[in-house]
Design a protein that fits this description.
19 helices, about 80% helix, single chain, mainly alpha, Growth Hormone, Chain: A
Amino acid sequence: MSTRAEHATPPQDRARRWRALAVCLVAAFMTLLDVSIVNVALPSIRSGLGASESELQWILSGYALAFGLVLVPAGRLGDARSRRAVFLFGLALFTLSSAAAGLAPGVGWLIAARLVQGVAGGILNPQVAGLIQQLFEGKERGKAFGALGSVIGVATAVGPLLGGALIALAGSDDGWRWVFYVNIPVGLVALPLAWRLLPAPVYGDRQGLDPLGVVLLGAGVLTVMLPFVQAQQWEGAAKWLLVPAGAALLAAFVAWERRAASPIVDLGLFRLRSYALGATIALLYFAGFTAVFFIFTLYLQNGLGYSPLGAGLAITPFAVGSGTAAQIGGRLVDRFGRPLVAFGLGMVLGGLVLAWIAVELHPGAGVAWWTALPLLVTGFGSGLVISPNQTITLSEVPYTEGGSAAGVLQTGQRVGTAIGVAAVGAVFFASVPGGWAAAFRHGLIVTLGFVVLALAAAVTDLLLGRRDRATAERP
């Protein structure tokens, strides 16, 4: 879509490209870590600031809401203007808001800082995928997305471990502040490196940014996500009326985009089977696998009395498996394609079933040891899902539209995460009277359902691809 020099030719210096990627991955890790690291800090925030249950929920979910709202507009802005400039702004804002969160004198200040943090994370993340599309091609692009997949998997799983360690070192009353302070030195180092290594901004040939499309999409995503992220705190069934209202807003957004002169989202992307089914797989898979950490940490800490650090250590096998396999998947995706994703989803299913069996047989304090191998298998499968699926999903997208396409994909992931945590959490909390182990098992069943649906979407893609090849081979 754009013809500017910034998008015309990727840098030829291979070492520089990989150094630029490293800066992007550090920033992405920091923003994704803040999705999960705060989970184990909530008891410390409650004791330190006297936060209520509702306020704790907003500290947790406000970040996810703000993050999801700005992904697509930010991706479009990077495509239409300068990915480096937007990346730098997002990184600076995230660093400043992390400092504000750590210094928060009260709960209201902390909630506001978390909302700004979420906006900053949402601004920054689609630029990473867009820059990968811009800087790399062919097998190198698969390796780069493999590295990003490692970051996604490890950041999600290692958050509770790092949060638990920081709280153990700094104390339960003020330990939560260091969960935010840890971002400051990382951001201060990454900013000058990003300025030097990322493709230089070139202003000119500016395109329209579709403000009405931004408003319709933002309102639709917010209205759909809000009842899910507030499922436990917002009592009554009236909240679910927002879901059809949000669907109507999204339908209005689609209708507008079809006639907009400069649409924020190219709806033609969804005519690409690789993109449409890849986005579906991502939504369903994130609905499943992110909810596992939510209910597992609750089971360990509330049910079995694990410390935040102990709960984080129990999830470490998943991070090890995911980080290792994502690198392998990035190298193999060019050879195997979607079958690799289907294989990974099968491993995730197998690992979760083994975790279920482990909790059935050994539900007591030693459960972390018995679930270590199942979580390692699940993490390995996850590493073969996230980065290969993202590589395939964006494979046919022009790199000039990489940011907005990645923004749509990541918005689906955020919506999936909200739906999954709400659905799994509802079953989990309803089952707590029967015991924490039983609650975890019941929540795991819902998680398995989401992963099975993701596998069905991957198999559908394989069958359609086989049909297309057979049709092409006919005389």
